[in-house]
Amino acid sequence: MMITGADGFMGRNLRVQLGELGYHDLIPVTRSTASAGLSELAASADFVFHLAGVNRPTDVAEFDRGNRDFTAQLCDALTLARRPIPIVYASSTQATLDNPYGRSKLAAEKIIARYGSASGARYHVLRFPNIFGKWSRPSYNSVVATFCHNLARGLPITVKDPNAALTLIYIDDAVEALVALLDDNAAASGEVAVGPVHQTTVGSVADTLQSFVNSRRSHVVPSVGTGLTRALWATYLSFLPPSEFCYALESHVDPRGAFVELLKHQDSGQISYFTAHPGITRGEHYHHSKTEKFLVVKGNARFGFRHILTNETYHLDVSGDLPSVVETVPGWAHNVTNIGTDEMIVLLWANEVFDARRPDTVAAKVAP
Q: What are phi and psi of 320, to 5 degrees?
């Protein structure tokens, strides 16, 4: 399997995912590959991912040389193999625009189509918008890469027009679209739609990425589990230098032990942990609406509960050796006591972020 542009942004991501799928006999074509050797390489290929191209040249003439002319050389080499070798071409949405880059990509698409028609080989053209993700190059592949690189290093970013439209596709989605075309039953020859495509603005992307930076101080993590925000989150983290892989949390220490907030989410509450020395009791309060989940990860704990109206009480013992979740229930005062001989460590999730103005935490003893 041949991959042109194998050492580029898309090429590196594609090679990794192909390797994960068991494709190891790859034929990489890079800028250092001699043109004279292209025919020999093509002769041993059974499929071609044509990712190579020029998008930021120092000379406008390079658009034609790197996109149109190289594609013609590649198709000539494939023709000499005298076999219908399928080819997938990573084009650009700018192929519809009347500019030097767009014209060179459109010309390359037409060359691919002529090769397919003449040889009988399957061919596919994918017009990608701005692609972003891990291993992209700042000041080259996309504004997302530039923003991520700078913010991950504490450098300023420049947003000239926050309302400027930005159309994006995540690298994992782009690679998935490419890999899907390996299937013999893939779409018929011609242009193939790509997606999901995200319509956003430069300002929105900048604000989202800045919120990731701020989350290390505020502990408030945005909704990073789906969609564009998930992809931006992964991309931003991929730009962190190793020296930034770790950051400190504030530990609130008193005679009972320590309390540390790990992360917060406005829609899903917060996660913290606390410690308690042997014999120490923590809690002694109730909530009207707030709920919590406790998980003892080390030590032995006794949880106490008292209904604040009926004075009904309940106690239960749990151990870090047998993971169990203990729920706090609105209207029940509760506490937790370290009944072991070693330090107790308890993980705590609350369904809402603590608000000092409305803490919903009322002091009350379990033992009335």
A: -65, -15
**Sheet arrangement for strand 123-128:** 27-29, 2-4, 48-50, 87-92, 123-128, 190-192
Q: How far apart are CA 178 and CA 3, in angstroms?
A: 11
| CA pair distance 36, 15, nearest whole angstrom | 24
Q: Please give the Cα distance from 353 to 26 (Å, whole number).
A: 50
Helix (H, G, I), strand (E, B) or coil at 41: helix
- Residue 327 pairs with which residues in a beta bridge? 293
Q: Which amino acid is at 304?
A: G
- Are the C-beta atoms of 280 and 338 separated by less than 8 Å? yes
Strands 48-50 and 2-4: parallel
Distance separating alpha carbons of residues 130 and 205, to the nearest angstrom: 13
Distances (CA, A) of 305 to 273, 296, 310, 311, 335: 20, 17, 12, 9, 7
Please write the tens of the pLDDT for every residue from 240-283.
999 999 999 999 999 999 999 999 998 899 999 999 999 999 99
Could you tell me the domains of the chain? 2-216 (3.40.50.720), 251-363 (2.60.120.10)
Give the three-class secondary structure for 321.
coil
**89 phi and psi angles, rounded to 5 deg:** -115, 125
Determine how many CB atoms are found less than 10 A away from the CB of residue 325: 11
- Backbone dihedral region for residue 280 (phi beyond 0: left; psi -120 to 50: alpha; all else: beta): beta
Tokens, residue 72? 């013609």
User: Mean pLDDT throughout 124-147?
Assistant: 96
**Beta strand pairing status for 190-192 and 123-128?**
parallel
- For the entire predicted model, the pTM comes to 0.91
252-260: long-range contacts, CB 8 A cutoff, minimum separation 24: 256/280, 256/282, 257/282, 257/343, 257/344
Active-site residues: which are they? 101
